[in-house]
Design a protein that fits this description.
Elements: H1 17-27, E1 33-35, E2 38-40, E3 44-46, H2 55-63, E4 69-70, E5 74-75, H3 76-80, H4 84-88, E6 99-104, H5 108-119, E7 127-132, H6 137-140, H7 155-163, E8 170-175, H8 185-194, E9 200-203, H9 217-226, E10 231-234, H10 240-249, E11 254-257, H11 260-263, H12 267-270, H13 284-301, H14 307-322, H15 328-336, H16 341-353
Parallel strand pairs: 3-11, 4-6, 5-6, 6-7, 7-8, 8-9, 9-10, 10-11
Antiparallel strand pairs: 1-2
Helix pairs in contact: 2-13, 5-7, 13-14, 13-16, 14-16
């Protein structure tokens, strides 16, 4: 694992002194790395998730220890049609340090044009990432996402057209293959290396698995051990114990955390603990503070945001972060009956204050976000 030469000075944090005092020592334990020419603050990165990895959430996750982030998947067609909402998804906040923009599409020239637009924004991304893993039907049916894995013979020209169009590194995020009988990630990696792809993130499931079953880490470790390209492993890293164990054992140069941080926003930081005996390290009131900062970040990113739109964006994050706390089910039902953002935030404050020093207890065998998110 190559150590990054980037400035690792701890960033300014938006939290209270008591929470800052918990966070800073853990941030200082991080070990910066480089994947090819791209530097990150640690080997733990935030995975791209549709409708979630917008600038405010990415920024929050960097505050809370993510070594780097990737945007939600963005349609090349929406960019090229100059759709206002799609173009807004390309924006990167100046305080975001290590963010890539992920694009999806099936046509090389249209992807190349969209990638140029992404690099022409006020804040340029560190890299452009091609989504080759999304299993959702509306993406796959048009030839994008994980459908690109079905015919690797077309990938060399696809990669070349996009790479030649941009001034930043090109990366890819893939799955192990289309289905269990057609796991071809190793073939894709060899082609990617020949075409100058900087690094690859691999979700340890096939397209047909969607988000069900378990990620195949044995296969991921074999890919990483082959040392074709710098490899980021992704899948089923939901607890600090799981992340710590994987970091100690993995051949991967980095790990991507996706659904885990949605319910535990401190997952990146708790994975830096010297022993998991310190868990739970963060309290329910710390969760509340994170929720309020996220609301501020969303308001800042959309200065004229309507209260209703803020409510819709915040409600899902509040419900996710409340998971596993006592009375979370009743709290969730109450939130869905509350139509105002101010009342929602007041109820949220009351809920997390009522938890005292209790921690989360999540049943990870239950389905969560299995309908597709990127």
């Amino acid at each position: 694992m190559e150590i990054s030469k980037e400035n690792t000075q701890t960033q300014e944090l938006p939290f209270s002194k008591s929470l800052n005092d918990k966070i800073r020592p853990l941030l200082e334990r991080r070990k910066p790395i480089s994947l090819g020419s791209v530097g990150f603050q640690s080997p733990l990165l935030l995975a791209p998730m549709s409708m979630i990895c917008k600038s405010p959430f990415r920024r929050l996750m960097e505050d809370l220890g993510a070594g780097g982030t990737v945007s939600e998947l963005i349609s090349c067609h929406g960019i090229n049609y100059k759709n206002e909402k799609t173009l807004d998804m390309l924006k990167i906040h100046p305080k975001e340090k290590s963010v890539g923009i992920q694009l999806f599409g099936e046509d090389a020239q249209k992807m190349a044009l969209a990638a140029q637009v992404a690099c022409d924004q006020e804040v340029m991304p560190k890299f452009i990432d091609i989504n080759m893993g999304c299993p959702v039907r509306k993406v796959v049916s048009k030839g994008g996402g994980s459908a690109l894995l079905k015919d690797p013979t077309k990938l060399a020209d696809f990669f070349k057209a996009i790479k030649n169009a941009i001034p930043v590194p090109l990366t890819i995020k893939i799955r192990t293959g289309w289905d269990q009988d057609n796991r071809n990630a190793d073939e894709v990696l060899h082609i990617a290396k020949e075409e100058g792809i900087e690094f690859v993130a691999v979700h340890g499931r096939t397209r047909t698995q969607q988000y069900k079953g378990h990620a195949d880490w044995e296969y991921l470790e074999t890919l990483a051990n082959n040392n074709i390209l710098p490899l980021i492993g992704n899948g089923d890293l939901n607890t600090a114990q799981q992340v710590q164990t994987r970091l100690q054992q993995t051949n991967c140069q980095a790990l991507m955390l996706g659904r885990g941080p949605l319910r535990n926003p401190f997952l990146f930081l708790e994975s830096e603990l010297q022993t998991t005996e310190d868990l739970p390290y963060f309290t329910a009131r710390d969760y509340l503070e994170v929720i309020l900062v996220l609301a501020d970040y969303i308001r800042e990113s959309q200065q004229e945001i309507a209260p209703r739109h803020l409510l819709v964006q915040m409600r899902k994050h509040i419900i996710w972060m409340a998971a596993g706390f006592k009375g979370a089910g009743l709290f969730r039902d109450l939130l869905f009956k509350t139509p105002e953002i101010d009342e929602t935030l007041k109820l949220t404050q009351d809920f997390f204050f009522s938890q005292a020093d209790s921690g989360q207890s999540i049943d990870f065998s239950e389905s969560f976000m299995t309908s597709g998110h990127g």
